[in-house]
Design goal:
By secondary structure, the chain is α+β, with helices and mostly antiparallel strands. The chain contains 5 helices and 4 strands, in the order E-E-E-H-E-H-H-H-H. It has 2 domains: 2-73, 2-Layer Sandwich (Double Stranded RNA Binding Domain); 76-130, no CATH class. Strand 1 (2-10) and strand 2 form a beta hairpin. It starts with a strand and ends in a 13-residue tail after the last helix.
């Protein structure tokens, strides 16, 4: 999953905004720093959407000309976390029932559902499987 971001000069630095996520605004003193900060701002904004129980906006298509536009990928860990939380919310399963299915304590499932708690990818994969979902990872050339 990746979202388009617009990068534009802002004095001696760069401003980055996301058309699909107006709250995500960041920048940097160089394009490299702005790109790194854009990744962090994107993921934090998406996790906040989930925490606030707001629907995640689908990424729009970047403009044809692509001028001053980047596609910022969401990390595998954050993508898996978002998918797990959304799958759990869409299910009728309770945290206790999911914990039993996973052989874990309910408190661990509660942490798995906390958007800001780091959860290992394998744990999220097992949680998704228990919810009837399968995590699929693809590899692409780096931009």
């Amino acid at each position: 999953m990746q979202y388009p971001a617009k990068c534009q000069p802002d004095g001696e630095s760069f401003l980055v905004t996301f058309p699909d996520l107006p709250e995500a605004i960041t920048g940097g003193t160089s394009e490299a720093e702005a790109r790194t900060n854009a990744t962090e701002a994107l993921e934090l904004t998406l996790l906040t959407y989930v925490k606030d129980q707001r629907a995640l906006p689908q990424p729009s298509t970047p403009p044809e000309d692509g001028e001053n536009c980047w596609e910022i990928p969401v990390s595998a860990g954050t993508t898996a976390k978002l998918a797990f939380i959304e799958a759990f919310r869409a299910s009728t399963m309770t945290r206790v029932a999911l914990a039993g299915k996973l052989g874990k304590a309910e408190g661990e499932v509660r942490r798995m559902l906390d958007p800001y708690h780091r959860t290992k990818l394998g744990t999220l994969e097992a949680g998704l499987l228990a919810l009837g979902k399968r995590l699929v990872v693809t590899i692409e050339e780096a931009a």
